[in-house]
């Protein structure tokens, strides 16, 4: 009997202890922290950053719980599984921070951020979330625009940049020249592609590319420009040009195209031999003599304006020497190298000994 009473007493004490523990738990352990709501800062636009901000309940109890017992806040991002569908969301396992940067592939989708707060007792609040509308494409823009190329007049140059703002449409590019120290830009007609093949006309200028980003729906962004260092003469050409400038007077053999009809097929018997004489003061084109004729000077003139030399983008062997509107000649040589040497020697004499500006030596179209 005594043993039975002892057992009942022990059970009663155990039960009483459990009840006291429960009472003490509810007496001293606070309520679970709660999240009143979640707000998303930022716009649902490509390139923008969405940031989740949790709102704490205004009650004194919750303010105290958050202040004393909050351990941390967990975030989880979701996106709609089908473009434009805001009812079905996919879990994004790697996106667990309070912020998310919207990308091109997010355009047309909706996003949800779920927020859960935990306390020091290992408890978690009910999840609270916020959602966005469908993500819109951003304003077209081009970042990190640069021009790649080796820096010589015989090199190929290319525009590189990072486009953002929806799907890129027919963005526009224009190549120009800029003289160092001058704000003026000289457009290069017809050069509107991502790549540009430099030529002797670019020597001494910076190449400038203006890139206007355009979205596939026609929306335009702000134009952005990039430029090179001044274009230098290719070393082998430069060496030869310097030698001839030091001589002060040089001669070149060339062919003259007498028939300048646009319908003529080049090389059909209209090319005649010519001697191009160049010195510090003037340029002269001479038709050599023969057994039946004396040499004839076809062009003779100084470097004073309107003298200039024109190149042909579609023929690297041709050049045109223009004294004035009635005094010009088209010449052909056997290589681009020789053409470049001739042009640079004439321009070198004009600039060094006649103070003629580089702009006046080119056929400039603005």
Describe this structure in words.
Pfam families: IG_AIR9, PH_AIR9. This protein has 366 residues and is an alpha+beta fold. The protein folds into three domains: 28-131, Immunoglobulin-like, CATH 2.60.40; 141-227, Immunoglobulin-like, CATH 2.60.40; 235-361, PH-domain like. 19% of the residues lie in helices and 37% in strands. The protein is built from four helices and 21 strands. It has helices at 2-28, 60-69, 235-247, 336-354; strands spanning 37-41, 49-55, 70-80, 89-91, 99-101, 111-119, 128-131, 141-148, 156-164, 172-179, 185-187, 195-197, 205-212, 224-227, 249-257, 271-279, 282-287, 296-302, 308-312, 315-324, 327-332. A seven-stranded antiparallel sheet has the order 18-17-16-15-21-20-19, with helices on both faces. β17 and β18 (296-302) form a beta hairpin. The longest helix is centred in the first third of the chain and has 27 residues, at 2-28. The chain is rod-shaped. The relative contact order is 0.09. Residues 22-26 have low confidence and may be disordered.
Describe the structure in brief.
Residues 257-353 form the AIR9 PH-like domain. This protein is of the alpha+beta class and 366 residues long. The protein has 4 helices and 21 strands.
Features:
366 residues; single chain; 21 strands; Immunoglobulin-like; alpha+beta; 4-stranded antiparallel sheet; 3 domains; AIR9-like_A9
Describe the protein's topology.
Elements: H1 2-28, E1 37-41, E2 49-55, H2 60-69, E3 70-80, E4 89-91, E5 99-101, E6 111-119, E7 128-131, E8 141-148, E9 156-164, E10 172-179, E11 185-187, E12 195-197, E13 205-212, E14 224-227, H3 235-247, E15 249-257, E16 271-279, E17 282-287, E18 296-302, E19 308-312, E20 315-324, E21 327-332, H4 336-354
């Amino acid at each position: 009997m005594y043993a039975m009473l002892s057992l009942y007493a022990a059970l009663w004490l155990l039960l009483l202890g459990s009840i006291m523990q429960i009472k003490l738990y509810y007496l001293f352990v606070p309520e679970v922290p709660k999240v009143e709501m979640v707000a998303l800062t930022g716009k649902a636009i490509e390139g923008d950053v969405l940031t989740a901000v949790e709102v704490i309940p205004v009650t004194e109890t919750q303010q105290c719980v958050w202040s004393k017992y909050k351990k941390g806040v967990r975030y989880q991002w979701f996106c709609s599984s089908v473009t434009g569908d805001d009812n079905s969301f996919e879990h994004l396992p790697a996106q667990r921070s309070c912020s998310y940067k919207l990308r091109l592939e997010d355009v047309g989708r909706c996003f949800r951020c779920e927020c859960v707060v935990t306390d020091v007792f290992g408890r978690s609040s009910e999840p609270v979330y916020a959602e966005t509308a469908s993500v819109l494409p951003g304003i077209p823009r081009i970042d990190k625009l640069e021009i790649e190329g080796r820096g010589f007049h015989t090199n190929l140059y290319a525009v590189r940049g990072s486009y953002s703002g929806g799907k890129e449409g027919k963005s526009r590019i224009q190549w120009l020249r800029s003289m160092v120290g001058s704000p003026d830009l000289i457009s290069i007609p017809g050069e509107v592609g991502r790549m540009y093949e430099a030529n002797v006309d670019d020597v001494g200028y910076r190449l400038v590319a203006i890139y206007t980003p355009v979205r596939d729906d026609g929306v335009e962004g702000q134009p952005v420009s990039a430029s090179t260092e001044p274009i230098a003469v290719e070393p082998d050409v430069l060496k030869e040009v310097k030698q001839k400038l030091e001589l002060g007077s040089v001669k070149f053999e060339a062919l003259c195209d007498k028939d300048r009809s646009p319908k003529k097929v080049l090389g059909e018997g209209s090319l005649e031999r010519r001697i191009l004489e160049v010195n510090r003061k003037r340029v002269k084109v001479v038709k050599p003599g023969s057994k039946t004729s004396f040499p004839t000077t076809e062009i003779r003139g100084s470097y004073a304006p309107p003298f200039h030399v024109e190149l042909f983008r579609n023929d690297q062997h041709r050049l045109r020497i223009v004294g004035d509107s009635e005094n010009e000649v088209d010449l052909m040589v056997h290589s681009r190298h020789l053409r470049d040497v001739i042009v640079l020697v004439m321009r070198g004499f004009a600039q060094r000994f006649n103070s003629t500006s580089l702009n006046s030596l080119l056929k400039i179209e603005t």
